[in-house]
Amino acid sequence: MHHDHDVLASGRHLELRSRGGWEFVHRRRGEGVVAIIAVTDDDQLVLVEQHRPAIDGSVIELPAGLVADQEDSASETAESAARRELEEETGYAAARWTPLPTVVSSAGLTDESVSLFLARDLERVGGGGGVADESITVHLVPVSDLIEWVEERIRTGTSVDGRVYASLAFLPRG
After folding, report:
1. Which end of the chain is more exposed for a tag (fewer CB within 10 A), N or C?
2. What is the pLDDT along the chain (174 residues), one digit of tens a residue?
């Protein structure tokens, strides 16, 4: 990895950096991102929907969040962040966790990478909905209906994160 870069601008959460003549965004907090492919015992995928200011609209996504984004969480691992985010956003805890590949978000735009996890043996332990400033809606979608469900949401004006489609590569065929 090349770490030589110039900082062109800095905001509260993000930096605009330049490397080799290419401009890209870097998160100022956290040690990367986790995203969770959480599947219930009856083969439903747990998805979240929230308003995203960058696109000024609602987005269907995998539950996800930053690793070690709090002052007191510098030593947090990716898996413990995944466990925390799944419960905060969806109200589910999972007994079985499988690390999956780490993927890049949008390599032309940001240096961010996302560690994927498969979460099974789910149990509802809370209400979900996220932390203070988040307003998250939880959706349970049968894996067998996922493509049709997503296409219908897109038709009605909701955006969908590409990792929702990518989750199919790691799901049992139902």
Report:
1. N
2. 557 899 889 999 888 899 999 998 888 887 789 999 999 999 999 999 999 999 999 999 999 998 976 666 567 899 999 999 999 999 999 999 999 999 998 988 888 999 999 999 999 998 787 766 668 999 999 999 999 999 999 999 999 999 999 999 998 664
Buried b (16+ CB within 10 A) or exposed e, 98-123: eebeeeebeeeeebbebbbbbbeebe
Q: Name the amino acid, one letter, at 7.
A: V
Contact 128, 89 (CB under 8 A): yes
Instruction: Record the pTM.
Output: 0.89
If you ran DSSP here, which 8-state letter would residue 97 be given?
E
Residue pair 47/61 in contact (Cβ under 8 Å)? The answer is: yes
- Please check whether residue 59 is in contact with residue 49, taking contact to mean a CB–CB distance below 8 angstroms: yes
